[in-house]
Amino acid sequence: MALTGLEIFKLLPKSNCKKCGKPTCLAFAMALAQKKAKLEECPEASEEAKSALAEASAPPISLVKFGTGDNEVHIGQETVMFRHEEKFYNPTVIAVSISDKLADDALKERIDAVNSLQFERVGTHLQVGAVAVINDSGSPDTFASAAGTVKKASPLAMILVSESPDALGAATAKVADVRPLLASAASDTAEAVAKIGKENNCPVVAQADSVEGLAELTGKIKAAGVEEIVLSLKARSLKDELYGLSRIRAAALKKTFRPLGYPTVSFVLDGNGEAQAAKGISLICKYSSIVVVESVERHAILPMLTAVMNIFTDPQKPVQVEAKVYRVGEPGSDSPILMTTNFSLTYYTVESDAEASRVPCYILVVDTEGTSVLTAYSGDKLNEKIVAEAMKKNEVDGLVRHHKLIIPGYVAVMSGKLEEETGWEIAVGPRESSMLPKYLQEVA
How far apart are CA 428 and CA 212, in angstroms? Predict the structure, then answer.
């Protein structure tokens, strides 16, 4: 169990040196107990204290890594039940399955289809993070051969999925250097699978049909020498799985129950693409660290990647673009200038609609700390002085000769003060960005 703040305080030097950034050792102890400080921030802690405090300072959900290089995957290490309490750290990984029954051209086509699942959304690159090779054939040799082919043809992190320790051993021997995740160890195969994981330095998935079974199983795997463990709950329904995953998360975070303090994986291999996307998004929300799907349909994968992007965005740091002047097409001295905020979704929506108009133009992006137009205006992060400063900083005077700025319709109220502040003519654009094409073609 985790130590209380007072128990931690008894182990600290009690010098109140303030080197940790806290006013007293007691304050530091309380912060450490609440997972708001790290033990290494205390430079005077003794080795004995460090050993005793290891459990208190360890994250309630362990970090697990698999894959290598730029495509190494990090899961776990979460500290809160809900994002607004702080933030989530390691985004859910979307993995796509590849059956070892596929061979030759069919196997290569499937690998290419998985590799191509990459998207651009509001300036962010999105892609699936792993490929799950599944031992549908039941043959260790066929499984190993498919894993070797996937390793050569895909840079993505790999998950090996088989109920057979022999098959997992054969495949791992082929691809151990890319450090795959081994799925799965059950109660009767835990020792054999854990041995493979330990010998090859690979993380292992523990799979059981109950939360209690998982807690017992992780103890066996850890005793066998494997520290990096992922949990897989075999539930009868989506409802049961979501309930079980929530129980696991709560036990790890609220009770610091170490046997369940690991990331999780869910398998969504039935149904069409839309059904898999719907189930996958539910699991992303509560609380799968990895979601393995069968579909390679882009319209099924993109919603899941978008959900991950939205849920794992730090709520205190909105996604934003650089505040500067952007060019749409090849604008000249007579082209219109639009003004908007640097909230990423706002900017890319405006840019897309401006491009749709086929009217070359400039977009002046004002720094509003990543907030949307109305949010920025209501919080006084968008006013005439801020816009005037942005115009001066970006030297918009030298871009055009007409001295006319188009502002969003939602902040029409600031047009008068902005004219007085800048000396420019202020035109009020449409309230909705979707009306920009017509506005630019007919009015600007």
Answer: 62
Range(s) within the chain of domains with CATH label 3.40.50.11600? 325-442
The CATH code of domain 325-442 reads: 3.40.50.11600
Angle at 373 between CA 344 and CA 352, to 5 degrees: 45
Would the CA dihedral through 407, 409, 410, 413 be positive or negative? Answer: positive
Residue 85 and residue 119 in contact, taking contact as beta carbons nearer than 8 Å: no
Residue intervals of the chain classified under CATH 1.10.15.40 are 5-57
Q: Which residue has the tokens 């109660």?
A: 187
DSSP lists the bridge partners of residue 229 as 204
Q: Are strands 124-127 and 118-121 parallel, antiparallel or unpaired?
A: antiparallel
The rounded average pLDDT for each run of 10 residues, N- to C-terminus, in the chain (444 residues) is: 76 90 90 80 83 71 94 94 87 98 95 95 88 97 97 97 97 97 96 97 97 96 96 95 97 91 97 96 96 97 95 81 94 95 92 94 95 93 95 93 94 94 94 93 81
Cα–Cα distance measured from residue 409 to residue 434, given in angstroms and rounded to the nearest whole number: 12
* Whether domain 63-311 has CATH 3.40.50.300: no
8 Å CB contact between 408 and 431: yes
CATH number of 5-57: 1.10.15.40
